[in-house]
Design a protein that fits this description.
The chain is 27% helix and 26% strand. It has 251 residues and is α/β, with parallel strands linked by helices. Bound molecules: hypoxanthine (HPA).
C-alpha cells in the first residue's frame, strides 16, 4: 500500500473518498497514530498529516518513529512525503517544486532510529541513496502529466540535495551560506529522520519538496510567514493533483 505523508498545508486529501480512519498503536507513543484511509480511482492510500490534523505539531515535536512504525504495521510499502522547503538552488524560488535525490542531515536531538533497543546485534542501514528511485520516478511522472493539463505548469527540479535542520526557527543567513557550500539545494525541517526510519523499516520513500520561500539571506526581503502561507495555499491544488496522479497510477 502507498502512503502519503502530508506536510505544511496538506492536512486532507481533496478529491479522495474517505474509507475510514485507523488508530495504530506502537510502542513509541502513548497515543495511537491516526491514519486516514482514502480512495482515488479505485486505489486506497494511507494518509498521515505529519503536523497533525490541526497543523499544530512543530517539526521537532513530530514523533517520526511512531508515524513510520504505524504505517509499517498498516502494511505500507511505499511513501510519498510532501515537504515544504526554503529554496537555495536558483531554480527553486517560492512556488516551485523539486524531487530531491540526496539529504544532508543537520538535525540534533531527534529520536532517529528503530535500532537501539531489543536488538540482537548492532545494525546499520545502507543510506547511500536516501530516496527510492522508483518512487522519485513516479512523482516526476505525475508532475509531468499534471503539467500537461494545467494552464500554468509548475517548475520542478529533478534531483537536488535536501538539507534538514532542526527548527522550528528558520536559519541564519550564515547557516544558509554553509548549507550552500555543503551542496544543499533546499532546506527543510521534516525530511529527517523520516527518510532514514522508512529505510530502516524497509519502506520505499520519496519526497515532493515544495519551495515556499527563498532560504534565509537569499532574498532582499526577510522571510514573511504571511507570504509563506500565501504560497502554500496557492500550491496545494497542484500538490493534490500530483498526489492523485501518483495514486491512480499505483499498482
Ligand atoms: N528553512 C527550513 N525549513 C523550511 C523553510 C526554510 O526556509 N521553509 C519551509 N520550511
Amino acid at each position: 500500500m502507498l502512503a502519503i505523508i502530508g506536510g505544511t498545508g496538506l492536512s486532507k486529501l481533496d478529491g479522495f473518498k474517505s474509507r475510514g480512519r485507523e488508530k495504530c498503536s506502537t510502542r513509541f507513543s502513548a497515543e495511537p497514530v491516526a491514519i486516514e484511509l482514502c480512495e482515488f480511482a479505485g486505489v486506497t492510500v494511507a494518509f498521515l498529516p505529519r503536523h497533525g490534523k490541526q497543523q499544530a505539531v512543530p517539526p521537532h515535536k513530530i514523533n517520526y518513529r511512531a508515524n513510520i512504525r504505524a504505517l509499517k504495521q498498516l502494511g505500507v510499502t511505499d511513501i510519498v512525503a510532501i515537504n515544504a522547503v526554503g529554496g537555495i538552488h536558483k531554480d527553486l524560488g517560492p512556488g516551485s517544486f523539486a524531487v530531491p535525490e540526496q539529504i544532508i542531515d543537520y538535525t540534533a536531538n531527534r529520536q532517529s532510529t528503530f535500532f537501539e533497543e531489543d536488538i540482537a546485534a548492532v545494525t546499520h542501514i545502507d543510506f547511500t541513496y536516501p530516496y527510492a528511485e522508483g518512487i522519485r520516478q513516479q512523482i516526476l511522472a505525475s508532475v509531468a502529466t499534471v503539467n500537461k493539463v494545467i494552464d500554468s505548469p509548475q517548475a520542478c527540479l529533478n534531483g537536488g540535495v535536501y538539507g534538514c535542520t532542526s527548527g522550528p526557527r528558520l536559519e541564519t543567513a550564515a547557516e544558509i551560506i554553509r548549507c550552500q557550500r555543503d551542496g544543499c539545494d533546499m532546506v527543510g525541517m521534516t525530511g529527517m529522520p523520516e527518510a532514514a526510519l522508512a529505510q530502516e523499516a524497509g519502506i520505499e520513500y520519496g519526497s515532493l519538496a515544495f519551495s515556499v520561500n527563498w532560504a534565509a539571506g537569499l532574498s532582499v526581503d526577510l522571510i514573511s510567514l504571511d507570504e509563506i502561507r500565501r504560497i502554500v495555499e496557492a500550491g496545494m491544488e497542484f500538490v493534490t493533483a500530483v498526489v492523485q496522479g501518483i495514486a491512480s497510477a499505483y499498482h
